Structure formats: C-alpha cells, structure tokens
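User: Second chain of the day. Same drill as before.
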Amino acid sequence: MNVYWGIEMEAVVRLSWDTGFKATKQFLKEINKWTVQYNVSPLSWNVAVKFLMARKFDVLCAIELFHSYRETRRREGIVKLKPHEEPLRSEILSGKFTILNVRDPTGASIALFTARLHHPHKSVQHVVPQGLFYSLDRAVDRKTEAEKVNYQQSSV
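Assistant: Same format as last time:
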C-alpha cells in the first residue's frame, strides 16, 4: 500500500470511485425518470459521467446542466448532428471554432470563435451553432478519455 502524507492512496482512489459511482447512479435514476416520461432513449453511463464531470460530480448541478443542454439543442434545432455531410462538414473544417487543450481555473473548456473566418453571407444560419455544439461535444469526449487514462494509471 502506498502512503503519501499519511494518506493511504488506495483508500483515496476507492473513496473517489465510490463517490463517482454513487453520483452517476443517482444522476441516471433522476434523468431516466424524465426519459421514460417523455418517451426518449435513456442516457448511457458514459454520457452521465460527462455531465457529472462538468459539474465536479454535483448531481443537482449536473441535472440542471443536462436540461439546459437539452433545451438549447431543442431550441436551436440541433437534434442529430451529421458532421460528414454538408453544410456542417464545411463549417467544422472552416477553422472558426477552436477548443483549446487547456482549461480555465475552474476546469471549464475554453472555446474560441475566430470571427474573421465567419462569413455570414456564406453560412447557413442554423449550421453555425451546430458547428459549435459538435466542437464542444468532441472536446468533452477528449477530456473524458484523458481522465479515464489518468484514473487507470493512478489505480495501477
């Protein structure tokens, strides 16, 4: 057993894993009540973890984030993104959206919009928010994968 500063590291990893596991179960229980009520597909474990990670495993804040995210997508007509089809493909490849690999002090992603690359007369209005959502979704996926690797390495 590794001991650092008087703390048993296996116990810390186990405690944080238990907390995350319980938070994810609680989040899914609450969200999937909503999915049943509105006849939509239940959320997967991986998607639940993404919302919880964004709110440092605060279940109530993650639920609020999920509903805000869902409502924004509904309002903007962003239901199913097709990044390999035009015009979204060109929007993504335009370079106007950049998600930095660094985080702000609170751990949030930093997204840049390069206005000089935006040409309103050439863009379809609904495609711009689709490009942003696609970029943000990919950034969350990258962060989740990096944290999985870090967790697995710390558990060894």
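The longest strand covers residues 97-103.

User: Great, on to the next one.
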